[in-house]
Every structure is written in C-alpha cells, then in structure tokens.
Task: structure prediction
Amino acid sequence: MRRGIAIVGALIAIGAALVVTRTETPSRPEITTPATSESIAKGEYLARVGQCEGCHTARGGERYAGGRGIVTPFGTVYATNLTPDPDTGLGRWTRTDFRRALHEGRSKDGRALTPAFPYTNFTHITSDDAAALYDFFQSLPPVRRKNRPHALRFPYDRPWMIAAWRALNFTPGEFVPDTARSAEWNRGAYLVHGLGHCDACHAQRNAMGAVVSGTSLAGGTMPGLGWYAPSLRDPREGGVAHWKREDVAALLATGVAPGATVAGPMAEVVRRGTQHYSADDLQAVVEYLQSVPQVRDVPSTSPAIEPTDPVFALGEKLYANHCADCHGRDGEGAGVAAPALAGNRAVTMTSAKNAIRAVLMGGFAPATTGNPRPYGMPPFGHILSDADAAALVTYIRNGWGNAAPEVSALAINRERGSAVEE
Result:
C-alpha cells in the first residue's frame, strides 16, 4: 500500500514539475508549398495504411469526422474530427501543427494529447508522409461536428498525469533505417512500427497502459477490445516465420489463408487497412514479419483434461450437435468456409479469449477484394450456458491431438460480460 502511494506521489511530482517547467516546442519552418494531386493521393493511401478511418469515423457518420468512442486503458476516448472544418476540425491547422501532433503528440495549442492516440508509433512517420496525410485531410469536404470531450478515468483526466506518462513512456523520434538490412525489410519495419502501429495491440502493457519495453509484437490484450492479439514472436500463436510467403500475404490482403482466418479487431484491420496495401508494401511487411525472432525451445503442452473426464464427454457431445456439420467430425474443417480446428493454434494458445469469443459471439472474416463474400460463424452465446460453453471450448482445445489448458465457466462468464460492455 505504501509503495503504491509512493509511486503515485512520485508521478504527481514528476507531472507537476513538467507542467510548471514545460516550454513550447521550437517552431519549425512552415511548409507553404501548395498541395498537389500526387500528395493528396499519397496521403489517402497512407491514411488507409494507418487505418485512420476506423477510429475517426463514427458508426453511420461522415468519414473522418470523428465521434467514435474507443475504450482504452485511459478511459473512453472520442476520436477527433479530421476534416478541414475551421471550427471543429483541422481547418485552421498548418502542416507544422499536424506534423507536431504525429511526431510529438501535441495539439495545435501545445496541449499534450492523450496517449490513446498512437503517437508513440506515429512519431516514426517521416515529414514527407506527414505532409501528404495533411494534404489529404485538407482535401476532404469539411464537416462541422463538434468534438466530444473524452471520458478519461482518474488520474488520466489530470494534465499532470499525462505529463508524467509522457516523461516515463515517450521519446519523440523518427524511423532510422537499419543499414545492414534491405530496403524492403526497412520499409516493412517502418510500416509495422510506424503508421501501421501493429504493437498498439500486439504488445503487453503495464499498469499505466504503456507498452512494456521489449514486448513489441509479443502479444497482449487491449482493454476495450477484449480479444487477445497473438504474439508475432511465437510460432504457437501468431508467428509467421515458418509460413509460406504467399500465405502471409494472402492473410493480410484477403483475411483468409490456408488454415487461417482473421476475426475480431484484426478483421477490421484487414478490411480498412492491409487489403489496400500496394503489392510492394505488402511484400515488405511480409519480409519484416518473417524476420521477427521466434521463441525457441518451446515446451510441449500436456492435455489439461482426459477424454474420460465428464467435461470432455459433454464438450464432445455439444461439438457434435453444434459444430461438426461445418468444422468436421474430427475437426478437419472445410477450407475457407470453416477452418480446421485440429492443430489450429488459434484455439490452443494459452489464452483462450479468442476461442471463447468465437463461440459466444460468432464472427465473420472481413469482406475484401480477394474474399468478397466471406463465410461467417453464428453466435452460440444465447444457446449455451457458461458451463456448456466451457465444456465445448475445453473439448475443442483438447480434441484430435490438441493440447491446451481447461476453460472454466467463470472464464466464460467474464468474457460474456466484457462482450456486453463493448
């Protein structure tokens, strides 16, 4: 208890000192070159790469006009209006103002932005790319939509806490190419860690909501999203170093690949973002992801439950009644229509969150140019009790040679509750 009070006290002291001593960032020379059709087109493409529309468009609202509420570790954040309306959008912003928001995480007036805006990634965006994004947003039809105040939880609703957070977790910097690597690899690294901000989800976060040092792309659960973003460093989870190059590209471009289908938040990432990557950028991302160091000497996992256990027997019966028609009696699947469950690492990860959510909520792969009519899975949350859902997921995680920890009814209940909150 005393340690917690001491930490909070230290944060208050740091934040207060920063608030008192903060000086305005030295101004950069303003870029006055008129926007060109080429820079606007480039900016539109980069906005898709960064999936800007996904956050900055409310359901049923005008594109990029903001208003969408996003649950984050800091509270509910309402995305801002990116259209050039002079009073509620970016109409009075300059290229320098916009560049500072991306690079330094500060608004036009110098106010520190809430770190829910991923400026910890966007700081790596080059000045040329920032200018192109600005030109694109300025080319949009202005939409007058007043920005809704964030509903931040204590202590993030206090300026001193944001200042302390930045002091502990953020240092502005631009992407520095690795001269020992190819241009393609560097482009992939730039997209993954910069505009693509993949570790906004695929990383572990500390109690302050900041990415834990050394866990980038190592997997994690983001508050508000609920789903688990698998580790891209672990072949048991989302690592693709052992995949065929064309299969990785297919998953990012279409949402489906041999033995894999994206779902949950990743389906939106593919729909709004990665399916629009140019062929060169897609290959660059694949090159980088396949170079990410993988976990070595992975210990084998013993089945958490024996076939003779009554829970296993109940799960087998439920599977036969609800799942076998699509996924096969032996979990062999039916191509892209119903992925195989036998040997499927998506259901055998230590975290069972995604498997539970698929059973409770169902889901669809994204509609993409390469997969325009995706197959979907219906929800079973309204049919199965917590105990039945637990037995079913446990069976899927341990049938046909799979091996993973048992799922409890309590775990089902928790996921059911968090899905309702979303």
Summary: Residues 40 and 136 are 4 Å apart (CA to CA). The mean pLDDT is 88. The chain has three domains: 34-169, 183-289, 310-421.
